Here is the input.
Amino acid sequence: MRLHSPVVLPCDADCSVLRDAVVDVADDGRIAYCGPRADAPAFSGPSHELTGVLLPGLVNTHAHSPMTVLRGLGSDLPLLRWLREAMWPAEAKMTARDVGAGMLLGAVEMLRNGVTTSAEMYFHGEQLVESVLAAGSRVVFGAAILDLPGTPWRPMADEISAWIDADGLRSGPHERIELGYGPHSAYVLSPETLAEIAGEARSRGALFQVHVAESLDEDVAQRASHGSVPRLLESSGVLGGRVLSAHSVHLSEEDVAIYARHGVGVAHCPGSNGKLASGIAPLRALLDAGVHVGLGTDGPASGDDLDLLEEARLAALYSRLSTMDASSLGAASALLLATRGGAAALGRDDVGALEPGRWADLVHVDADDPAFATGLDAPDEQVLANLVWAAGARRVTDVWVAGERVVAGGESTRVDRRAAQAAVGEVSARLRAS
Ligand SMILES: [Zn+2]
Here is the structure.
């Protein structure tokens, strides 16, 4: 298959803007060529003419998407009260089927927003993965691991270890599924437990996803005993493998240096951090230190719209406001956070950019919108600015995963969206009533 578009954004390190360009997709679902049409190899397969901007599928580095069933709950509470009073009591009543229903709608919603890969920290992984496969997206599943009275951590860790050992790290059609560990945080798990789980993850090459320093008041005890959560993670031997630190709002210069030293990826979630009044992560400092940063929506009960291009806009706005510097983060850099930066933060080199060998996960943003009225032939910076600052995801019309069109005309080709919404409505009503 060949896709031809007036503008193609491969999301290479320079955020090039290619004009009159094509993307060739091989039969195995990977990209064979991305570049100007004039330089493209001879091609005889089916060709699709697009009218807007073609870019890589977006990579959401931190989500709890099954929480679509809890959307809007406890909307005006700060983090710890929101968790304890609204989220955890409702989640305790959720069944595996509820998780499946929530994830199906979340995956469909994300695909419609151009998000083809999401890193999910949640429970009932089997149903979650089933829904991802039904929608046709990709997931890096981090099995949630907590340590609470009645729910000790070790069986949860053993369960995901056994699953990885049985199915392998990546599986499913076109490797849509990656399995890993989702230890919740250092305020729920002890340093020794975190280190043990990290050892299991490292020995399997799996991703270790953990919440770090989201709000100021959550890590008080850990800060008192270790100085900071990154210092705790370093001193207890957690760092070294593939580690993804979600939020990471309250970091010192030393914490940033620790992350750079150990190749820790960060999932920056500006929308959720703003809504829960958690704070603003030191994005510029992280990037300057060479830390791999991606963007995350967080769960739809705090990052409500599962819209990663909005997170890109918020990341740029917050970065500029917190540094009082309009050059702190431009549209190109914001877009790269949502694509190749996210892939790098997850430790993945097969998604997040349009390069030969990566999966053909593609998003077409139609230009028939006021945001692009100044024309796709405008200078590069203006086209990028119009995409990030003005258009966002509202004109995402078509999405491909491994070369398969999973969104056409703005709707899922695989899932009846209204039925998925109705199923979430039923779950939500039952949780409210019980
Ligand atoms: Zn989270």
